[in-house]
Amino acid sequence: MRRVVAVAALAATVAGCSAGPPPAPAPAPVDHVVTLTVEVVGGGGGLFGMAVTWGHSRVETQSATSLTWAWSHAVTLRYPDVERVWVSATPQVRPGVDERLAYAGGPPTLHCTILFGDRLVQDQSSISPTCEANLSASPPAGRAPAPGQRSGGTAD
């Protein structure tokens, strides 16, 4: 009888042990209004458009062509369903513009930004910039956006 009690006590002790703490609860869903922008800065806006690719962790990469100096796309994304968003671009000479004339002053600079609501969370400038940002359950730690540097080109 003593042996049965000891085995029962051991079984109860082992049953109460677990491999670790219980799993953390899933994060509560949070909606983010995300705005992706790309623009030609510092000149060349009237001569160049751009090829833009963008996407997020729940969709295949999307492509767009802008014949003007600026492109923008706003979308509402829900965390934790979507965890990452990105945009990149390369300049393209606008149709009807002589390529030698367009590049006479050198290649243009493009500037990309990602905003979560009214907070700038990523920005890059180069001939072919890529901006990436991670969504989270907490408010973004970005900063208020500075006024954009316009190219002086026309967006026709």
UniProtKB/TrEMBL annotation:
Keywords: Signal. Residues 130-156 are annotated as: Disordered. PROSITE patterns: PROKAR_LIPOPROTEIN. Residues 136-156 have a biased composition (Low complexity). The keyword Signal applies. Residues 1-19 form the signal peptide. This is MmpS family membrane protein. The lineage of its organism: Bacteria, Bacillati, Actinomycetota, Actinomycetes, Micromonosporales.
